[in-house]
Input
Amino acid sequence: MAQLILYGLIYGGIISLGAIGLTLIARILRFSHFAHGDMMALGAYLALLFRVTLGLPMWAAAIIAVVSTAVAAIAIDRLFYKPLRRTGPTILLIASVGVALVLRHVIQFFWGAAPQVYQRGVERPWIVWGLRIRPVQAWILVMAVLLVVGVWLFLQKTKTGKAMRAMADNMDLAAVSGIDTERMIVWTWVLGASLAAAAGIMLGLDTQLRPAMGWLMLLPLFAAAILGGLGNPYGAIAGGMIIALAQELSTLVFNTAYKPAVSFVLMVLLLLLRPQGLFGGKA
Amino acid sequence: MALLEVSGLRAGYAEVDILHGVQLTVQAGEIVCVVGPNGAGKSTLMKAIFGLVPVRAGRIVFQGEDITGLGPAQIVRRGMCYVPQNNNVFPSLTVEENLEMGAFIHPGDFRQKMEEMFELFPILKERRRQKAGNMSGGQQQMVAMARALMLDPKLLLLDEPTAGLSPKFAELVLEKVVEINQRGVSVLMIEQNARAGLAISHRGYVLTMGRNRLDDTGHNLMANEEVGRLFLGG
Amino acid sequence: MTAALILEVHNLVKEFGGIRAVDDCSFSVREGSITGLIGPNGAGKTTAFNMVTGFIRPDRGEIRFRGERIDRLPPHVIFRKGIARTFQIPRELRLMTVLENLMLVPMNQGGEGLWRSWFAPGRVREEEERIYRRAIEVLEFVQLIHLKDELAANLSVGQKKLLELARVLMADPQLILLDEPAAGVNPTLMNKLAGYVRSLRDQGKTFLLVEHNMDLVADVCDWVIVMNNGRRLVEGKPEEVRRHPEVLEAYLGGAYAAS
Amino acid sequence: MEWGGVVGYGLFLLIYGGIYAISALGLNVQWGYTGLFNIGVGGFFLVGAYTSAIMTKGPDFSHLGGFGQPFIVGVLAGGVLAALLALLIGIPTLRLRGDYLAIATIGIAETLRLIVTNEQWLTAGVWGIGGIPKPLFSTFGSAYNAFYAVLVLAAMVLVYFAIERGIRSPWGRVLKAIREDEAVAQAVGKDVFRFKLQALVLGAFFMGVAGALFAHFVGYISPEAFEPMNATFLVWVMLIVGGSGNSKGAILGAFIVWVIWSGTEFVAAALPPALGPRAHALRIVLIGLLLMVMLLVRPQGVLGEERQVSKLLRQESGSRQASAGG
Output
């Protein structure tokens, strides 16, 4: 049980990082970004490229991959989303499904469909207070906490972070206050894509990389964002934790294979009972 | 030279003109109040000046520079700030953060300016860490005005600052407008409560159906019986 | 003025985030009248309007239509009872033709059932022909007949306003709520609208209109209700109301002891 | 390529194009006419395929079965089960914002894939269900594909007319009104939720039927066949390319995109075998780009939307095309 909660926290950190971006994009760009999971995968594979192909140490590969993913996100926005921004959220949604498709198969084209890992060999888990944790998982946990705290500090303390929250609150007023909204949109992509890439790398470290990994994360990501009230970054973090814990604990009762379905069921229940999300959020 | 000079302004939404050639001036140091019945185009006038509604004809000159057709981001940089009637604060941001957003385009330190605002609106200092969304309507209005003043504008545009406020708060807000003006900021405002608005204004304009109908000093307009008739037609 | 009351609103309350948009408001509309609902901005007219048509649910109070309670009913049910509304900013069905915009409206169309449209096309066709003729009549009445096959998106704003009215007429409602019919409309069209409203009243329809243009109100309304701060302030004939000191006060406000 | 090859390919094209066209017609009812966002098309397709396979097979101990029902019963059952599933998703989500339906449909599609992969007793899991009966196989023998092509096209035509009849009646007019402006539809007395539910369910029914037709043609199904790419995105691309809001467009799009999709397979086959799996990925990238380019350049699709909806009005003034994007 405690072991499952530990795994839940690790996985929850990964989901939260993805869901923060999703929720900010939903609020600031006003569409549900269905390619977000695949941005995670892109980040993970770019890290693989820098790690294996160029032989960089993992930390360096990860940093370069995060930056490259952010750049790719901005490019995708300019190329596909920006020209469609005036046509309304549903067309953007379809477009993001198309982008998801393209990203996933570009990955498959370059790296193939077979699962890959950053590092071969089996790690011997540490035993801490009777709980098993692999060193890499400990790293993930620490990094996830640091990143969540980092995002919190960024949104809470920096001018850009505050402006981003201001945009999410009231776009028109932000424009009237002289906030450059196009620039903030770029920042939103930078933040969302970097966090997604980081989450993807962590997921790859914890398990393995597969081209479909992003697609499979999409449901937990959306479930977390919706649980958090779609638009509230702090809600998304809490939502991610709840989803991950529920998925891990569900294995006590159900077949492990059904973990992904748990997030779906939770989401549908929430939509039935409290469509505005668990943590307020405006209707 | 007038601070703001609007002439022959035609503007509106989609294909409908709401304003059919409005002219208006604000001299430096003035409070100017625009009154008129609902649907006269007061809000549209303000939004057109601030670049939020497309201008189809006419000119807007601010500090001697033609600003017709500029967007709000450029106009803000030229020293004009605007407080919309509704949704004029960032509800999930604290009071301090709201003010910081007001000064967003200022590269430098905003602390001193913020202290000035706290001096002008002491209540905001007490509640500096409170989320703006949890404040009363009157307090939100003060947050909104303070946010707009953070940039040290030459001209402040206020769209119905007392709308929806209790008489006590409305009076307080108008007192603050006078105080702001005494600190050297010119004010152009729309006021639903025409008498109260005109009472604190140097000059006023009466607008009906997108056209100028009367202009005079605030006190003369207050006393003018025709104003009432214009409000209720006929 | 002995006509029956078609609409009665009793002690209606609606709060939005702590602000009372409508505050214990009561008024009624007599059958066969053209009643104006006026008041300064923020008086609560539109909110009241939205509650009568079911788009907003009141917090408290009752609304009765011909004596029957209709608060708590969803908009489509209220419509079927005989209350139709227009929108202040025309909401045309953009990619549908003018004719389709109208043919959509009539209630209880058998052809709206999928089974019937599959298995009883003959009956649906007859019904369609009837609705079509009705639509043509209405389009002729509002003089939009020449545009019947045009996409609604391509109409001018004035034509869209007429389309709003025409759409409402298709349903043959007893009470018609007009939300600012004169907003954004030129004087010629305004006179035209006034003419339509009067002639429809003469055919037995009742109108309740929210309107800012006092000239239109004075021109068509035979009764005016003034709202202020979410309540009914006064009511009466247009010329009485216009001279009423409290109304003047509501519109102009009182001077505070400021400065 | 010799003649036999061309004819063989032509028959495959007709069969697969027809099956996808039925799915696309279903999606057109949901998205094209009503504006409902279903990106779980594959889920409904899967339910139709598995249901019909299980219903029609004789006893097989590797999974649930032994019902031995006739082909037509299987196909209809496939459609009905898919429709029930749509009802189940529609009720919690159709009153909410459109995105929620989209997310819920993805969720149901993925959950179904998990179920068919893991519930061996029901679907034989990853091993898949083989030996799905091919109707009248012994009667037609070597001309079987020609027969099946006729069967699929007949089904497609039937679906087309069923939808056209519904759409060109007052029922379809209400759907279109909901797509254009829900509040107006409400304001003129239409029970918006009910109509949306009907459109979702009807569309899902056709997707289920398409899935069943697919299962009986290939004779073997496994979870792999219902990857979101094949089962969902291809159908979306077909509808967008052909022109959403136009049943003819859905059919045209299905055939165009299927030709492109299968044509790229030939190209892939010509590449060295080492590149095989990569070529597959490249094909999908191409389809994705086709979708993006279409959205950017011609969002109304090849055919665009037809202007008149009602049968009666069609006689009046013919069917002109709606102007681009309105």
Observations:
- Chain D touches chain C through 40 residues (CB under 8 Å).
